[in-house]
């Protein structure tokens, strides 16, 4: 078959090692799709039947299992059938659909980000921003209101429109 990889390179060895029991250790990977990158397995749920088998180089036990495959499948155990499956495919559909623990990383990263942000806000409040501003005291606000009324700011529809200048009190 023209799509088989001719030789193995260090990048073609499985990075996950003995993950699937009877078919481990993984050997040379073939490409999962014709015309794809050479010697890269691309089997996935969206591409369920790759062009080449997952494992090409078989040891003696796997070769014997391939010979047994040519006979009656009733003589094969479930473990042997699964081992044969893993010679052709990397993962079963159940293994592909298995939920990952990526959500824990996302939640942890979000919590760490929020904790860092909280510490940053606390540090700014303590060390960067000054204490209470003198313009926020009640005395200063009263003087500011008095000045705005004296200057008659907004006397038609604004602030001063609600002040009775003859009685020196707010209109009712």
UniProtKB/TrEMBL annotation:
Membrane-spanning intervals of the chain: 105-123
Gene3D superfamilies attached to this UniProt entry: Cytochrome c oxidase subunit IV
Subcellular location: Mitochondrion inner membrane
Ranges where the record places region Disordered: 1-31
Domain of life assignment: Eukaryota
Main location: mitochondrion
Keyword Mitochondrion: yes
Entry keyword annotation includes Transmembrane: yes
GO terms under cellular component: mitochondrial inner membrane; respiratory chain complex IV
InterPro entries, per database record: Cyt_c_oxidase_su4 (IPR013288), Cyt_c_oxidase_su4_fam (IPR004203), Cyt_c_oxidase_su4_sf (IPR036639)
SUPFAM superfamilies, per database record: Mitochondrial cytochrome c oxidase subunit IV
Pathway where this protein functions: Energy metabolism; oxidative phosphorylation
UniProt entry keywords in alphabetical sequence: Membrane, Mitochondrion, Mitochondrion inner membrane, Transmembrane, Transmembrane helix
Coiled coil: none
GO biological process: mitochondrial electron transport, cytochrome c to oxygen
CDD domains: Cyt_c_Oxidase_IV (cd00922)
Pfam families reported in the protein's UniProt record: COX4
Assembly, per entry: Component of the cytochrome c oxidase (complex IV, CIV), a multisubunit enzyme composed of 14 subunits.
Task performed by this protein: Component of the cytochrome c oxidase, the last enzyme in the mitochondrial electron transport chain which drives oxidative phosphorylation.
Protein's recorded name: Cytochrome c oxidase subunit 4
Organism: Sphenodon punctatus
Gene responsible for this protein: COX4I2
């Amino acid at each position: 078959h023209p799509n088989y990889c001719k030789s193995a390179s260090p990048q073609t060895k499985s990075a996950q090692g003995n993950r699937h029991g009877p078919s481990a250790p993984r050997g040379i990977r073939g490409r999962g799709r014709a015309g794809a990158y050479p010697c890269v397995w691309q089997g996935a749920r969206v591409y369920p039947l790759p062009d080449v088998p997952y494992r090409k180089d078989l040891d003696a036990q796997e070769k014997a299992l391939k010979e047994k495959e040519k006979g009656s499948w009733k003589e094969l155990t479930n473990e042997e059938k699964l081992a044969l499956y893993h010679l052709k495919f990397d993962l079963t559909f159940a293994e592909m659909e298995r939920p990952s623990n990526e959500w824990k990383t996302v939640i942890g990263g979000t919590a760490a980000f929020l904790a860092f942000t909280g510490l940053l806000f606390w540090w700014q409040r303590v060390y960067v921003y000054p204490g209470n501003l003198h313009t926020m005291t009640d005395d200063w606000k009263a003087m500011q209101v008095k000045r705005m009324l004296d200057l008659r700011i907004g006397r038609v529809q604004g602030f001063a429109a609600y002040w009775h200048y003859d009685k020196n009190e707010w209109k009712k």
